[in-house]
Amino acid sequence: MDDIRILMVDDHGLFRESLSRLLQTSPGFKVVGQCSTVSEAVAAFGATPADVVLLDYDLGEEQGTSLFAELRQRQNSAKVLMVTAGMTDAVTVRIMAEGAKGVFLKHSSLDQLLAAIQRVANGEVWMDTAALKAVAGSRERSDGFERGRPLTVRQSDVMRGILDGLTNKEIAQKMKSSESSVKAVIQELFQKAGVRTRSQLVRIAIEKHSSDWLHA
Questions:
Q1: pLDDT of residue 134
Q2: What are phi and psi of 35, to 5 degrees?
Q3: Which of 71, 103, 163, 180 is the most exposed place for a label (fewest CB within 10 A)?
Q4: What is the domain class of 153-208 according to CATH?
């Protein structure tokens, strides 16, 4: 299996260098570039393709979120994982809506970051526990959004497992249930959210049902 190609975009040089060295020594990961601004990141895309972008929200005089528009304009398939010291509830909701595949807080461990990068590279969504709570506490809603039906206790347990990045088997073990039962509940969640994949389900849960589906 090919290494996951990583582009780092952060205005703190020491952080970039330190994290780059740690990632380079981790099997299965390859840092293909380091940038401090969005314009540098755009130039880097033209030179070296990346699978995952580790993007800081605060890049000094600019916000990292401006990179999303550049990626869409260039139809670039790189997936973005926000790696940040922290963001407000409203910003967390907005960056997920703009296309981020997850939020990772800088004080978390390297092992957690490697897991987050792996999941994002595989097309899944990663939400740091603190970031997930921030989203759940946010009251922002899209104009005209109609509140959906609340989840059952069982559906909530499965949803929480999905948000934690667990497999169906791991969710079943945690719930002391069968894997087939978990799959059936996931299909219920798909139907309720009007989606077909786990990543779409997570996005809908975060963007539109943060207060009624994501209670702790």
A1: 57
A2: -135, 155
A3: 180
A4: mainly alpha
| CA distance from start to end of the chain | 37
**Tokens 């791991």, residue located:** 170
Q: How far apart are CA 138 and CA 206, in angstroms?
A: 10
How far is residue 144's CA from residue 37's CA, in Å, rounded to a whole number?
A: 36
Total length of the chain = 216
pTM above 0.70? Answer: no
* Backbone torsions φ then ψ of 150, nearest 5 degrees: -70, 160
Residues of the chain with CATH 1.10.10.10: 153-208
- Phi/psi for 163 (5° steps) reads -65, -30
The dotted CATH code for 4-137 is 3.40.50.2300
Average pLDDT over residues 120-141: 67
**Is residue 32 pLDDT above 50, yes or no?**
yes
